[in-house]
């Protein structure tokens, strides 16, 4: 039974990889989850795709190997990844922004272009010091949070070039 399931999963993966180049992915970006849920555009399907990508950690692999429909220089795709990541991890991100660091905020910093220690530290400091501007009210959603964060980054001398 286990061999059958493993074989079926491998075949699905191979079929998905062969179709990756011709697929247009949704806001969940690239990866196995996006390939499995590529025809679905509802929020639930986007969350499922992003969660699947997160559980299997395949987007990083896909980007570095340029498989699973990922490219290493896809700016538009990266913007979508930021949006989905922020939506899926909104509560944790808002907590870690207030604290000035954490695992989820570190993940967001990487997606937003912080490649070295100095930019990551500047990102953490900005998120904490400008928390009220990034999340101005209880009704601020993840889309507004990302928009506000980008605006604050654009005004920062270290982060504006990201």
SSE layout:
Blueprint: H1 2-19, H2 32-36, H3 43-56, H4 58-65, H5 75-88, H6 90-99, H7 103-111, H8 117-129, H9 131-134, H10 142-154
Helix pairs in contact: 3-5, 5-10, 6-7, 6-8
Structural overview:
The chain has two domains: 1-73, no CATH class; 89-162, no CATH class. The protein has helices at 2-19, 32-36, 43-56, 58-65, 75-88, 90-99, 103-111, 117-129, 131-134, 142-154. It contains ten helices and no strands. The chain is mainly alpha-helical and 162 residues long. It is globular. 67% of the residues lie in helices and 0% in strands. The termini are far apart. α6 (90-99) packs across α8 (117-129).
Treating each run of at least 4 consecutive H or I residues as one helix, how many helices? 10
Share in β-strands:
under 5%
The helicity comes to 55-70%
Radius of gyration: 17 Å
Structural class by secondary-structure content: mainly alpha
The domain count comes to 2
**Biggest β-sheet description:** none
- Compressed to H and E, one letter per element, the order equals HHHHHHHHHH
Distance between the termini: 49 Å
Which spans have pLDDT < 50 for at least 5 consecutive residues?
A: 2-25
Mean of all residue-level pLDDT scores: 76
Topology, number of strands: 0
Q: What's the overall geometry? A: globular
């Amino acid at each position: 039974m286990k061999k059958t399931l493993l074989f079926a999963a491998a075949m699905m993966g191979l079929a998905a990889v062969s179709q990756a180049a011709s697929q247009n992915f949704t806001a969940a970006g690239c990866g196995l989850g996006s390939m499995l849920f590529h025809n679905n555009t509802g929020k639930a399907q986007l969350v499922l795709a992003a969660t699947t990508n997160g559980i299997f950690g395949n987007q990083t692999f896909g980007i570095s190997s340029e498989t699973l429909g990922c490219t290493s220089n896809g700016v538009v795709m990266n913007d979508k990844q930021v949006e989905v990541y922020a939506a899926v991890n909104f509560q944790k991100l808002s907590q870690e922004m207030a604290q000035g660091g954490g695992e989820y905020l570190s993940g967001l910093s990487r997606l937003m272009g912080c490649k070295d220690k100095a930019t990551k530290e500047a990102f953490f400091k900005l998120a904490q010091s400008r928390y009220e501007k990034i999340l101005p009210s209880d009704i601020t959603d993840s889309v507004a949070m990302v928009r506000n964060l980008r605006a604050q980054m654009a005004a920062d001398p270290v982060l504006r070039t990201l």
